[in-house]
Amino acid sequence: MVRVGPLPVDPPVVLAPMAGVTNAPFRRMCRRFGAGLYVSEMIGARGLVEGNEKTLAMAEFPPDEDPRSIQLYGTDHGAVGEAVAMLVRDRAVDHIDLNFGCPMPKVTRHGGGAALPWKLDRFEAIVTAAVDNAASVPVTVKTRMGLDDGHLTYEEAGLIARDAGVAAVALHARTAHQLYSGTARWEVIARLVDILDPLPVLGNGDIWNAADAVEMMARTGCSGVVVGRGCLGRPWLFRDLAAAFAGKEIEPAPDLGEVGAMMQLHACLLVEHFGPRFGINLFRRHPSWYLKGFPVGPGVRDRLSRVSSLDELAELVTTFDGTVPFPEEANHMVRGHSSGPRSVKVPHGWYDTRTVGELDARAEVVVSGG
Predict the structure, then answer these.
(1) Where in the chain are the domains?
(2) What are the Cα distances from residue 71, in Å, to 99, 147, 202?
C-alpha cells in the first residue's frame, strides 16, 4: 500500500490518464478487477474555469466512483489554482494530479506539457497554486525525465514539487524526445526515490504485466506504479497486479470468449454513458487492443474498427472461437502509442534561461498526456 496524502492506495497501483481512453466507462471496467487509484482523462484548467461544456462534462464522476481522481493541465497558475478550488468545492474530488508530461509538439512548442518544468519559476507557481487551493485533497505531479538528455528536469521538478507540498511525484522514465520509443530508464526512477525520500515516488514506463511492476518496485524502491499502455485491452491486468502485490497466484488470462464478453460490456458502458453514436465511436479504438495476438481474421478486425452499433458488435463476437487461450506473447506486445524518438518543439530561445515571465496563451491547448 502507498499513501497519497490521506488517501490509502492498496494495491499501490495507479491508472495513468490517457486522453480518449480513461473515461468513466473505462475506469469502471478496470475497477471491476481490483482496487487502486483510477485517474480520469486530463482536463484543462482554463476550460474548467471558463465553463467549457466539454471540459465540465469530462470532470463529471458517476455517483458510485470512489475515490474520485482527476488530472489537470494548465500553464497559468491563476487558472490552475481556481480550477483546483472548483474541483474541490463543486466536484468533491479526492485526488488531483498535475500533468507536466505531455510531449506533443502542439503543446511543447508553446511552452506547455513536458516543456514547462524547464521554466522553474512557472512550474513552482503552478504547483504551489494547486496545493494552496486543494485544502486537504492531495495533489500529485506527473512528469517526464525532461525534454531530452541535454535538458533534464526531473530532479529540480521533484524537489520543487516536494517543497510545495505535493503528496507524491510520478515519473515516466522517458524524455519528451523519446516519446514512447525505446526502453524506459528505470534507474532514473531510483535516482528520484533517493532524492525525494521519504516523499512517495511512483514509477511509470514499460509495465506490461504484473511481473514488470514487481520488478520495477524492487529495482527502484518506488512506492507504487503507474500503469498506462499495458492495460489497453487488458483491464484484468489490475487483477494480476493485486494478486502479485499480495503474494498470491495470478489467475490464467481470459480466453477469447471471455475477452469478447468484456468487449461487449465495455461498449455497452460507453453507449450508456455517452449515447449510441459517440459511445460506439469511442469504442472503435479498443478492439485492436483487446484482440492483440489473437487469431482473429483481418476482415473481422476491419469491421470492428468501423463497428456502428452494439448489435453489429454482438454479431462479430459470435464469429470468435471462444476456446482460444490468451496468447502468451501478447503480454509484452506494445499497445497504444509507439512513436519516437522525435525532436522536441519548444518556443524560440526556450533553453536560454530557466525562468519565464509569460507563456504563449496557445499553451493552454489540451491534448493527450504523457
Answers:
(1) 2-251+340-364, 256-325
(2) 7, 21, 15
C-alpha cell belonging to residue 336: 497504444
Report whether pLDDT(286) > 70: yes
Q: Is 231 left (phi over 0), alpha (psi -120 to 50) or beta?
A: alpha
Which spans in the chain are helix H? Answer: 24-31, 45-49, 53-58, 77-90, 105-108, 120-133, 154-164, 186-196, 210-220, 237-245, 256-274, 276-283, 287-290, 298-305, 310-317
Query: Catalytic residue at 231?
Result: no
Residue 263: pLDDT band by 50, 70, 90 thresholds? Answer: very high
Listed range (120-129, 173-182, 239-248, 327-336) with the worst mean pLDDT? 327-336
145, burial (CB in 10 Å: exposed 0-12, middle 13-18, buried 19+):
buried
Question: What are the beta bridge partners of residue 66?
Answer: none
Reduced to 3 states, what is the DSSP secondary structure of residue 113? helix
Give CA torsion, residues 317, 323, 324, 326, to 10 deg.
90
For 2-251+340-364, give the CATH class: alpha beta
* Residue 42 DSSP code: E
Grid cell 475497477 is found at 31
- 8 A C-beta contact, residue 206 and residue 183: yes
CB neighbour list of residue 299: distance below 8 Å, 6 or more residues apart: none
Q: Which of 30, 102, 222, 231 is catalytic?
A: 102
pLDDT score recorded for residue 106: 86
C-alpha cell at 299: 476482415
